[in-house]
């Protein structure tokens, strides 16, 4: 360790755990990743897992911790009740819930709920990432896209979350690839898709035009039977179709903004979304997902008086 | 048996087999159902299965048979190559392919292919049902909806199949219910959905407006967490969402006709589609699915000179 830690920042998701040690300026002193997500912690206990990681990292036994993610779900460590939108990101971070009897000062950032009966929705974890992104992009009206298993789109207006929606695009890809008739088209292990794949772009462009998934899914199978579409291109077609339809649907709901879409993603999936947004005629501003969650956790620690304002 | 059979009519699907004995007027003399579909026949052989059923029914060993369905697939008894649309139903039935060495005169009705690169599609089995339906509804321009695992919509204009599309709505319901996060919402065994269920109607109406599936799927989960949507209503929501989106999408592709939508379905699924079409402001004409396939097989037998014209 190069410097004395002041606080631990923890992103505790369903299947993953990330822990950072931060100094008093919020800079990273040490970090580690583990697969002891919610599903593991429900059996082993949250406190023992966190205690062990912090001890292994040489942190003092009374080091405070700021936590985001599924640890705050009803079935998590302690429930951090949803904050309803619209709500300012500052108020959301400020509503972090202390965990009684944790042996140290642990607070969990709440998730968000949208109780609108026509578009009910929830998020947990992404609100912290979002706070990091919003600080980076500043004031004004922004549409933020956060790809993943359950991709979130969020309207952020001058630091307030005005509304959001979930498109389960990653999950759809996976269930269609594994459990539908398309498993014959994509093969046992779907090939990775590159953003410059012409089939990806073609299916994406079509789906961007009307957001229609149901009309085209079986077409992937038929294109294999009739036109010899191979397994790798079938995966590209499914990916282009689902991502294109998602972008059409989300921009229809939230409208287009004067500002570029803020894309919180990195790696291959981020690159596919960047290409698809470009095909949809949308300007894109990239934000790093890992950096965003860390900077959101630092902001949450400050907002709750666990770190002095930077 | 009340009368001497002249021909056997056979609907040989992926998982089911139906055999009728018909007299010289095309009237049913005897019938039976079995679960020896394509998947079983690939192992046991097609001829032995058909021979045994016909023998058990007391039919002569040289009784001819007209067959439709997956028995004509590449991986079936013998491949009956797809007929390309547009094509008249009379020509489609007339393209039945003889099975060499079957020990009796067996002919298999071909499936249909649509090679349009933007909407590639195939069907096998439904073309025969469609011929039965088309004979019933007569000339004019009709849009035919055939619900099922892979629901088919077909444009039939004066006895010619002008185009068709597949919406895998039944399959989507099943993979989302069993393999997505919605399995927590719907429970282990999704409840049957009634057409007068208010949640079914509400989600159907919303989806009819824009055909959007991706924007709403996760809302079923969120409505459970936030608004206490129960398991039975979650199944109703998913069903309404998928059927409503399908109708929006199919009517967008084919346009609305002056004639009612011809709904080839019976039982609970047919009732859901009838309600959904009504909610979409579409007039509906019902056609019985079982009767349709039988009358299509009779028409195919006549068209191929296996029965005298009725």
- Outline the biggest β-sheet of chain A: 6 strands, mixed
Low-confidence stretches of chain A: none
Radius of gyration over C-alpha positions of chain A, nearest whole angstrom? 21 Å
Cα-to-Cα separation, first versus last residue of chain A: 21 Å
Percent helix of chain A: 40-55%
Series of secondary-structure elements of chain A, N-terminal to C-terminal: EEEHHEEEHEEEEHEEEHHHHHEHEH
Secondary-structure class of chain A = alpha/beta
Q: Give average pLDDT of chain A, whole number.
A: 96
Shape of chain A: globular
The chain pair forming the largest interface, with residue counts per chain, is: A-B, 47 and 47 residues
Which SSEs are present, and which pair or pack?
2 copies of one chain form a homodimer.
Chain A lengths: L6 E6 L4 E6 L5 E7 L3 H7 L1 H11 L8 E5 L13 E2 L2 E2 H6 L2 E2 L7 E3 L3 E3 L6 E3 L2 H12 L3 E6 L4 E7 L2 E8 L1 H11 L3 H4 L11 H13 L6 H11 L3 H24 L6 E4 L2 H13 L4 E4 L1 H15 L7
Parallel strand pairs in A: 1-4, 4-8, 5-9, 11-14, 14-15
Antiparallel strand pairs in A: 1-2, 2-3, 6-13, 7-8, 9-10, 11-12, 12-13
Structure description:
Chains A, B: InterPro entries: DGOK, DGOK_C, DGOK_N. Two copies of one chain form a homodimer. Helix content of chain A is 41%, strand content 22%. The mean pLDDT of chain A is 96. In chain A, strands 3-2-1-4-8-7 form a six-stranded mixed sheet, with helices on both faces. In chain A, strands 6-13-12-11-14-15 form a six-stranded mixed sheet, sandwiched between helices. The first copy, chain A, has a three-stranded mixed sheet with strand order 5-9-10, with no helix packed on it. Chain A has 310 residues and is an alpha/beta fold. At the A-B interface, strand 13, helix 5, helix 8 and helix 9 of A face strand 13, helix 5, helix 8 and helix 9 of B.
């Amino acid at each position: 360790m190069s410097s004395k830690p002041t606080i631990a920042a923890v992103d505790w998701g369903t299947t993953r755990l990330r822990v950072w040690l931060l100094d008093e300026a919020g800079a990273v002193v040490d970090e580690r990743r583990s697969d002891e997500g919610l599903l593991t912690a429900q059996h082993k206990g949250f406190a023992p897992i966190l205690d062990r990681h912090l001890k292994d990292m040489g942190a003092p036994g009374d080091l405070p911790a700021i936590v985001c993610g599924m640890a705050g779900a009803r079935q998590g460590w302690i429930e951090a009740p949803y904050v309803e939108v619209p709500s300012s990101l500052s108020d959301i971070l400020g509503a972090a819930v202390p965990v009684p009897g944790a042996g140290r000062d642990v607070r969990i950032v709440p998730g968000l709920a949208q109780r609108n009966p026509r578009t009910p929705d929830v998020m947990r974890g992404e609100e912290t990432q979002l706070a990091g992104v919003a600080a980076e992009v500043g004031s004004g009206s922004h549409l933020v896209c956060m790809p993943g298993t359950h991709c979130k789109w969020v309207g952020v207006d001058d630091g307030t979350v005005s509304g959001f929606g979930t498109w389960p695009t990653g999950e759809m890809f996976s269930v269609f690839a594994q459990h539908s008739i398309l498993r014959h088209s994509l093969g046992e292990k779907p090939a990775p898709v590159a953003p410059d794949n012409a089939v990806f772009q073609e299916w994406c462009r079509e789906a961007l035009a009307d957001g229609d998934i149901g009309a085209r899914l079986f077409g992937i199978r038929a294109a294999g039977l009739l036109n010899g579409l191979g397994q790798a291109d079938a995966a590209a077609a499914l990916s282009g179709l689902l991502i294109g339809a998602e972008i059409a649907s989300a921009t229809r709901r939230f409208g287009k903004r004067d500002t570029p879409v803020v894309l919180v993603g990195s790696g291959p999936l981020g690159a596919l979304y960047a290409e698809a947004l470009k095909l949809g005629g949308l300007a894109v501003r990239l934000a790093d997902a890992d950096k965003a969650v860390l900077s959101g956790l630092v902001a949450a620690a400050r907002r709750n008086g666990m770190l002095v304002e930077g």
